[in-house]
Specification:
Blueprint: E1 6-10, H1 20-37, E2 41-44, H2 58-66, E3 73-76, E4 79-80, H3 86-99, E5 104-109, H4 160-174, E6 184-185, E7 191-192, H5 199-202, H6 205-214, H7 224-236, E8 258-263, H8 268-275, E9 279-283, H9 291-301, E10 313-321, H10 325-331, H11 335-343, H12 354-359, H13 364-375, E11 378-380, H14 382-396, E12 400-404, H15 410-428
Parallel strand pairs: 1-2, 1-12, 2-3, 3-5, 4-5, 5-8, 8-9, 9-10, 10-11, 10-12
Antiparallel strand pairs: 6-7
Helix pairs in contact: 1-15, 3-7, 4-6, 8-9, 11-13, 14-15
Length: 429
């Protein structure tokens, strides 16, 4: 197997009994040590209203660890585009790049938001514009239903139920149409579990509240492809508005960022990444049933760009490594309970102790809620986990692997990354 670098994906977890200060100090410490262990990248995810996760701002997290490290690449996996503007994204990353040039990865993810009006309504008296001043088609992401606005020239904020409905429609449209109603196996035996039904989560009042809090009243989310094109134009200093005016992001224009697109299925994100000739990050850790769809759709859509001559894929996995298989299973014991808190719609809880996890009484419904994630978490000794990571890399054709590890004790988390890096180096140099 060719050399496949490993990266760290950090959700900035809070442990049961811990504090936000503990979690942030642990992140800075892990980033320092991951650099010493030889990991190529250290990425931050973005989540909101989760008591057990502090990854609310990848850019801020990157800035916190940039000064404590010197060589490891730092990035987002990813910035949620549904409530951000291309300019704000480029300026924030440009600001960090000004002090830490050449080390940043800008990963951009789709996220739900209020769709643009389609019935002739306007925002602030002007027509909605998309990439470089071009018109949008009014759909969120892959083109979900629009809530529209009144005919008086102003779009009204959508109530939470309408936002949730639009998010659900966009999600369904983004899946790529592949049936995953049964458990499958890749040609080399990699488990492709039955797809989890997200409709319950997409219909939760909590999601509507989150979207309402993240997005300004009256604001809308343009097409994802348009947002990505605007980011690229601002980075390349080629942005122009519909009326011919130009804009230069300062800082940001000319920043040496690696741009990545995140995707969990064979839908719009994969096609956007491929058609723009960008790097693509697929997820086995939170959407294991559709990871093969995502990488196949990306490669099918790929067109060479000035930055990338051939497709380039990173695949993420949930991993816990212990001294042996039994030790790793004990360290990973809280994972199912933690996933249950997310899948139930309550938000991620602080990561439980093994004892708290053992005390939980599981119902059949609970087990079904987390089955795909538990079955695809890679848990074991360094040799066991390395074998399964190699299986994942072979099945997906990954160029890199991103590892996300959460344990209750910080020392166990660091040791997991250390053991894996040592075994991976022994195998791949």
């Amino acid at each position: 197997m060719a050399d496949i670098p490993l990266a760290v994906l950090d959700l900035v977890p809070v442990s049961a009994g811990g504090t936000p200060s503990d979690a942030l100090r642990n992140t800075v410490d892990l980033a320092r040590q991951a650099e010493e262990f030889g990991y190529r990248r250290y990425w931050f995810a973005e989540h909101h209203l989760n008591p057990g996760l502090l990854g609310v701002s990848p850019a801020v997290a990157i800035a916190l660890v940039a000064g404590a490290t010197s060589t490891i690449r730092l990035g987002s996996a990813g910035v949620q585009s549904g409530h951000r503007t291309p300019l704000s994204i480029v300026e924030e990353f440009g600001l960090i790049d000004a002090l830490h040039p050449g080390r940043l990865d800008l990963g951009i993810g789709r996220s739900p938001g209020r769709p643009a009006p389609t019935n002739g309504a306007t925002h602030n008296g002007s027509s909605p514009v998309g990439v470089n001043g071009g018109p949008t088609n009014g759909g969120p992401g892959d083109g979900g239903s629009a809530d529209g606005g009144p005919g008086d020239g102003a779009a009204t904020p959508a109530p939470a139920p309408a936002l949730v409905s639009a998010a659900a429609a966009a999600y369904q449209a983004s899946l790529g149409g592949v049936d995953h109603s049964t458990e499958q196996r890749a040609a080399n035996g990699l488990l492709i579990p039955r797809r989890f039904d997200f409709s319950r989560l997409l219909g939760s009042p909590r999601l509507g509240l989150t979207l309402s809090l993240l997005q300004q009243p009256g604001a809308y989310t343009p097409e994802y492809a348009d947002q990505v094109d605007d980011v690229l134009a601002l980075l390349h200093d080629t942005y122009h508005a519909a009326d011919g005016q130009t804009a230069s992001a300062w800082p940001g224009a000319g920043a040496a960022l690696e741009v990545w697109i995140l995707g969990a299925s064979g839908g719009s994100s994969a096609s956007v990444a491929g058609s723009r000739g960008l790097r693509f990050a697929a997820s086995y850790h939170h959407s294991p049933s559709t990871v093969l769809d995502a990488v196949e759709a990306y490669r099918a859509a790929f067109e060479p760009s000035t930055d990338l001559a051939a497709p380039y894929v990173s695949v993420s996995a949930d991993v816990v490594v212990g001294e042996d298989d039994a030790d790793a299973a004990r360290l990973a014991a809280g994972y199912g309970l933690w996933v249950r808190s997310i899948r139930s719609g309550a938000g991620a809880i602080p990561f439980p102790t093994p004892e708290q996890a053992a005390a939980h009484v599981w119902s059949d419904a609970d087990r079904d809620l987390v089955a795909d994630r538990v079955a695809t978490q890679l848990v074991g000794s360094p040799s066991t986990v390395a074998d399964r990571l190699e299986q994942l890399a072979t099945a997906t054709g990954a160029d890199e692997l991103a590892v996300t590890t959460i344990t209750h004790r910080h020392a166990d988390r660091v040791r997991s990354y250390e053991l894996l890096a040592a075994e991976w180096t022994r195998r791949h140099g």
